[in-house]
Every structure is written in structure tokens, then in C-alpha cells.
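Quick question, first post here. What does this chain look like in 3D?
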Amino acid sequence: MQKLSYLLLLIFSSIYCRAQTAPYLVKDITVGAQGDFMRDGVDLNGKLLFTYGDQLWITDGTEPNTVFLKAFSSMSNTLVVMSGKAYFVADDSVHGNELWSTDGTASGTVMVKDINPNGRGIKAQWGEGSPLCLMDGKLYFAADDGVHGFEPWYSDGTANGTQMLKDINISVSSIDTFLMNIATVNDAIYFTANNGISGQELWTSDGTPAGTHLVRDLDNDSSGVGPYKFMPYANRLVFLKYYNNTASDTAYITDGTFIGTQPIGPVEIDFPQLNDHAIRGDRLYFLCTPSYAGPSKLYRTDGVSITAIDTTWIQTPSMVDKRGFSSSFINFNELLFYSGKALSVPSILGIRENEGYATGFQMPYVGPDTASSYLPTSLTPFGSKIYFRYAKHQADIWMTNSLTTQKIAYPDDDVTLNLYIPILLRCPMVQVGNSLYFTGYYKTDIGPELYKIDLFPANVTPNQATKTELNIYPNPARDILNIDGTGSLTIYDLLGRCVHSENLAANGHALLNISLWPSGMYTVINMDSSRSRSYRKFVKE
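> Answer (accepted):
Ran it through. C-alpha cells below.
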């Protein structure tokens, strides 16, 4: 019976403890308590390319190879990878906002073209979307060369290959960069533009001047607000349109043709705020807030009609918390998940389809701090788990596998009041390979900096990922536990709570009295001076 219990604990631990390590600091970039935040990051050839404030950096996850590339006076928050390089909009204090590229080296970080020699060529951000859109090996964006105003442009990454696509409005700018949205569907881009006759309307392009045209004049005059909230779906585009003479918005779907642009189902639904969307199977799901003070609603469409999904089970005042953090919406394990409130408790919520009917369910609570007004953010799936941020007093990283939800603790956290929570919740979490990068604030003398969590593939256990020698004996243990290793060690229980941490003595030996510890499975993490890590489990009888 005792052997069976140990076996069950080992199986249990392989389910819950696999693929989890404590966060660790990649590099203290700004020495001192000030620090800064990662605003965006992408996987560039197996490394993390990231913006740190208005600086560009790259890292392989180790401190020596975390390298500064270039500083700017301002940068857009979006990095787009194309053909082994990353592209972004930045101002170097000389040329204004222009298109830049990097190959991951300082010498290879260059301006693609000075589109407007007398000012900024590109707005840093288009409406609610990225300033750059990728299609068929080219980038599309709105730019002003100082002559034509803001018009659609494209770039293949070279100066000669960066050109205006079409002068849609020969008198003034055709693109209102505040209202601008852009999306790619198959081999076409969609964007909003004003030709001086139709007002702000939906346009499409196949990447050629001749193939750039108005899709349909939905207003029949120059009033109203242009299409917005672009959602690619089933080789078509779903978008919203506001009319001046109504109190609601209308959802449309288009295939890029006049006749193929039609309203969906009930033509007028109160959609002043769309929070997020995702595709599951052959349906598009989206969250909407009918009023800025009212509860959010969950809808789905098959491209023909819109159906409201029953969310009375949620009993939530809003899917957007009072600080304005929108829900995250992800596809995971053939289900949809998003963040919201159930019975006023911040939670991760899910949608399950049964014979065409969608019902909802709630993941386990994210922890004891249920009074927090912050929603979980940055939902990131990996293997059989979802990683996310959640905050009350601290913006921690959490994980859930739908059976249990636990915090991934930093062993030496000394922050008691985190004033950076609103910023940290907006910072991205970026997965590169088997690593998850994020901005963390755990040490008051370091400030917010780049941290990393090592993730492991589903078929690799922490014991198999051992890099340094770590021995634990006896195992199982009742009263005294011996540990041999180097550097520092941290011990976690099955809930991910740090129960012990220390720096090993010069002889690399630790003798622990565990007689009062609760029985169960524990994970030991040992990190040496080169930051290599070893992982072992033991059973406390």
C-alpha cells in the first residue's frame, strides 16, 4: 500500500509539476531600482527580440547573450517578422517615425527608407491595430511622403522596394491614422480609407494599384464612422460599422466584393465596444460590451446570423474590469477560454459546444485574493497548461491545467506593494521555444526587468532536463533530507508554493529537517553559478 501511494504521488507530480520552474532574472539591464518594461517581443531566429522602453534588445535567455542593439526616441509597440528579419516603426531623433529593420545585430539594425525627408513618414500606431501588416512577403502600412498625405504603402524590406501603393485621395490624406484598421485575409489586405467622395469606407487590395479599390459604400454619403474591429474569418472579413443615425453598430461580413458584403443576421446590435474574438471550428466568437457600464455579452456567428450565448451562469458585471483590461481569448485543447468574472471573482472562463449549443464553464479560482478587480491577462497556452498574469498585491505569473490553478512563485520576492501592477498587466508574455519571457518586479533594488520561466515539452520531465549534478537522499524521507549540489536550491510543494530556499555551503551539501513538513511530493530546483538548473522530486512520508 505504501509503495502504491508513492507511485500515485509520482504520477500526480508528473501531471502537475512537469514543465514548471521558478522565474529567474535574465539580465538587470538598468542597474538600480528604476528598471523598465518589455513592450513587445518576438521570436527572431530562435532568440527573443524585444523592446525595452524605447530600446531594442535581443537575448538567447542568458545574461551574457542579452545584447543591446539600438536606442530610439520612440518606438511602436509592434515587431513584425518577415524573411528572417524584424520590422518596426521608430524615431531615431533625426528622421522622425520611419520603417526600420533588424537581423538581430547592432550593425544590422537599419532604417529601411526615409519616406518623408521633412518629417515623420509613418504614424506609430494605426487605430487599434498594428502599424504594419504582412502579406505575401511584403509589409503594408500607411505613410506620408510629405507630398501625397497618408496613403497605403508597401515594402519588401529594401529602400527601392518601399513604395506608395496608390494615391486614393489626390487632394488630401485618404487614411485617417486614428481610425485606421488593417487586416490580411488570404491574398488581400483590407483597410479603411476616404477617397473624398464616399467617406471612411472599407477598401481592399491585392498588392497592386489596379487591384486596390473600394469594396462597398455602406453609407451612401460621407457620414458615419468607417468600418472597424476587423476579424478575419473563414476566408472572409467580419467587421463593425457605426451609423450616425442609429444608436448601435452593425456587423458585416465580406469576401471583398460588392455583392459579397452583407450585414449578418440582426443588422443592428448595440456594439460600442468589442473586446476580443477567436475562431473555433467553423464559428467566430466575440465578446461585446453593449454599454460602458453594462455587462459584456458573448456572441458567435457562422457568417449568416449572430447568436447570443447564454452567460447567466457567469453572473459577471463586465468582461472588462474597471481599469479597462480587456479579456484575453484563446483556443486551447479544442475549447475556447477567456478571462472574466464569475460571481464577481476574477476567473478564466471557458466555452463548450454541445451539438451546436454553446455553454460556459469556469476554471478554478486563481487564488485566495479573490477580491482583486483585475482580470487575468496574457493567457498563453503551452502543452497542457495555460499561463497567465493575475494581480492583487503583486503581478504574478500563474498556470492552470483546468484541474488546478497555482502561482509560479519567485523564491526571493521582497516586494510588498507593487505600484507597477497596471503597467505589468499590459506587458506581454512571449514564448520562444520552451521559454516564457515577461517583465517581472520581484526585487525592490532591481526594479522591473526581463524574467524567464523554463517550460518543458510534454514528453520531457524536469528530471530529464538536468544540466548539473543534484542528489537527494533518502527518498522517500521522513525527518532528515540530504541534498548535494552547487549554488542555490529552492523547494516547491505540489501547489507551486516555495517552502524552502537557501544557498548551498561550499561543500555543496544541505541537511534539512523536514519532520514538520506535510506529507506529499516536493520538487527541488538547484541552480549553479552558470545558471544551469537541475530538478529532482522527493516524497515526504
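Residues 337 and 350 are 4 Å apart (CA to CA).
Residues 1-19, 315-326, 366-370, 457-467 have pLDDT under 50 and may be disordered.
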